[in-house]
């Protein structure tokens, strides 16, 4: 509990003190040291200050200050030890002197104090998640481009008898209020005040990575730097006296390689050492002030002078940090300072300093601060004899590969080729395991058919569960292959190049190159893709990216594509048709994005750096794990929403049941037939039959359900049983095709030969509709979550459906003219 929560007369033992370095130092100097017993002399609620007795004398603190001190109270400790006593021997109950009470308290406080909260902070792609996974054994996603980690993940590790709680934060280049991620990390550091920050650095990119370190130094957090990717710098033959560098920064630095765990023990050893404040006068552990030049420093001092009068501010922030942020024109900090009584003077000081900087250097103060920081880094590196080697340059390879892959002329064709190969392998190779699963499912169905008594349960199992889930689950191999490719491209670093190549094109759409990665991810699943838009700094680009994401054809749509493309088109055209769907989605995304950026969503674009991480050959383990993690989600969905939906769709088609009727007639008079018939007029311009309409309605939950519903609706139709003309050698979905053809035949009263092209057109338009309409409930919820408003979520739901209706209607009508 917090010290502030102790009541008058109660005692507690101090566990730890949170808050930034300056605050801790002050409190510790007052005698509030870990393990010490503190007694509350007077604590009136809402009344400052609170009086304490510590180490024999009286001290007063404010409530808010006491709230930053964690203690164990006598009551808490007693409860704990009673628990233990019940479990062990009841003997200890007799002991009740004051002295032992205090001992117990101290023991409890000591054991609690062995929990260290550590936050991982660093640029994107520097290895934070790798450390997190290595230390905690968690299986977080490790990717090779920015934006993989979008939320804070918590994991646990144990070292030297300490329990370490690790928080993996999103990657950031700085701590300005520029992107949602930077703000998020800043908030975490201030509001959740970790005991220790591990600043992970990509040592092969030292200069740029140290920029964030300088900002952390300003914040005055307790930290350890992990000089990660040390293997790469060694391979390249870089030289750096990291001990010297560490001394210059006043921060311990430990060389590490998180892919194999090298240095992790040392790193945690340092964490514990700092936590326990065993560092003494060692210059490797001290708070330094980075010199920002005369004018800026004067400004900082003037501003700090005012801030120091504000106790609340002083507790939460390092005043120096706030002053620097204010001079950087940080909007968030400005808002915070505006509420203070001295706001006017503070802003005057700021403007005065800024004006002087402008006069002298012709630069604004923000740039001046940045320059000063880089100057500091440059100087420190010089002193640490930093030199990049050329022995065996890992980047040389990267540069060479990049010359080809990002080349103006061949880059784009290579990209298209790779994407084409990806889909080709997915569909062509994926067909083999698909056949095996299919025959397995067929066998299962036959077995149930043979051994189970007739009745609704059997019908539900065969037509509902096997017909529904079975028709979707066969696509698992395809999905795994597709994910394997995406994971490989992500992990190897090619995805970032793809984004780079696409940057220009994305700008034409009014978007960022950075929007491209979420869009590609959208081919897998829209939900994580929407979350990954958090890396996009500009709010406008981010919003537009989220809105057009549903047009990216996700894996959930593949089952229905394969089902229909496989049965209506000759093998040699199949990949082409498939491509056309994906391309239509992309084309629509381009058009919609243009419309949105031009007419609806205003705002300016912020410039950004496009990261090109060095190529790495991803480990088989990593790629397989990422592939499997995604596959697992697919299976989960299968056992959940798709299973339920299949059974519901089956039940709606089975009831009310009439044994007399043949399957076709039975379905038409069932509930589902009624629902389908009711909405049928809406889809007249597309020529969809009621069965297709039902598929679309069911697909609102998740798009796989379109396929599983079709599986249920068409699998139990035996009206062709006597038709000798119909053979089954046209492929596994031959039945589906024949039924759609006969539906068209019946509708227009035309011959089979005439109906066939129309049926094919209908089927294609159906796919267009599935591609474009209402993404799925999970995606809409994700958009709501990310934009924070139902307005945009419902907008996405409505505009996609209208678009789907319009495009499929136009396609059908034009198609009819051409046939
Ligand atoms: P994050 O964005 O900071 O979370 O970085 P990740 O943990 O996702 O790592 C990015 C990439 O760097 C992955 O491909 C890792 O396998 C790789 N990586 C991480 N640490 C090291 C290291 O010490 N050496 C090398 N060579 N690669 C590393
Ligand atoms: Mg990460």
Describe, in plain words, how this protein is organized in 3D.
With 819 residues, the protein is of the alpha/beta class. The chain is 60% helix and 8% strand. It has 36 helices and 11 strands. It has a 6-stranded mixed sheet, with helices on both faces. Helix 3 (74-87) crosses helix 4 (98-112) and helix 31 (690-698) packs antiparallel against helix 32. The radius of gyration is 33 Å and the shape is elongated. Residues 88-97 and 717-730 have low confidence and may be disordered. The chain binds guanosine-5'-diphosphate and magnesium ion (MG). Magnesium ion is lined by residues 128-129, 148-149.
Strand arrangement within the widest β-sheet reads: 7-8-6-9-10-11
Assembly category: single chain
- Bound small-molecule species: guanosine-5'-diphosphate, magnesium ion
Low-pLDDT stretches are 88-97, 717-730
Computed over alpha carbons, the radius of gyration is 33 Å
Roughly how many Å apart are the termini?
77 Å
The overall average pLDDT, rounded, is: 82
Largest pleated sheet: 6 strands, mixed
Helix segment tally: 36
Tell me the fraction of residues in β-strands, as a range. Answer: 5-15%
Based on secondary structure, the structural category is: alpha/beta
**Molecular shape:** elongated
Residues in helices, as a percent range: 55-70%
Number of strands: 11
